[in-house]
Structure formats: structure tokens, C-alpha cells
Amino acid sequence: MADKIRVNGNTLSWGSILVKIDGDPYTGFTSVEYNDKRERVKGYGMGRHQAPGRRSRGKYTVDPVKLEGFKASFQILRAELAARGPDGITYGDTEFNVVIQYSESDDTPITVELERCVYVATTSSDKEGAELIMETVELDCMKIIRNGLSLFDGSAGAP
Description:
It is a single chain. By secondary structure, this protein is mainly β. Helices cover 8% and strands 43% of the residues. A hairpin with a 2-residue loop joins strand 12 and strand 13.
């Protein structure tokens, strides 16, 4: 199956994105960055070809997720996570899921699930000027699922 040829209509863009954290929509984010990979190692045996003949099953890893947005939006997120924490003030131990939905009326919807995330870092850089006050937040997530599909081997059940 090839991708769609588009003559008119809208394709996915920033306005097509909806971000939900544990089901609650957040609109104050201006950037979302995520990445997962399956690192594999090639195995070499004897022979004149000196080419690999096998590879490992690999190790699945998720790089830190980065969200950038308005400082007030992240304060709301921190307060929500802390309220669910054991002491009501710690937001770094609360696990949550992030769902990113991409949709346009004439395109196939895409849903990306960032599962079992925890909050790990905040970067702020406030300067005098006309710019808005922003933050960058880093999350540690266990896995990424794209429209129900995974990069890791899920044949024996998902982790």
C-alpha cells in the first residue's frame, strides 16, 4: 500500500495535534519530541565475504521525551502529578501516560501513546523582552506505541 496522493485539502500540521496526559487535554505545549529505537548487533562468522550473517534480537530503548510550552501549563501538570503522589507535594514519582493524536478530516488519524512516563527535568530560561515565558520538560517513558504498533517484539506479550 502506498501513501495517499493529495491534490487539495489539509495535511497534518501543528494545528492537527492534540496532547492528552492521563486523558486530560493540554493546549499550552509548543513542541513535542520523542524517539524510540531497537539497537541490534550484527554477528560475523568465517568466510571470504566478511559480511554479517546474523543479528541480535536487539534492545529496545526510549530516549527522553521533551515537551516545550508555557510555564503555566507545566505548573498545572506538576500540581496534578503532585496531588496524585504519596505526600501531595512530590511530582517526580507519579507515572502517567501521554497520548498524542494527529488528525485531519481527510487523512488517516495517527495516535502515539507514550506509556508509563515520569517527570525527570525542567529547563527554564527567562529573559527580558517581548517573548513569552516558556519551559522545557523532560519525561522518561517506558515504551511508545504508534497506532497500536510497537517497535519492540511484542510476540510474547507487551512489557
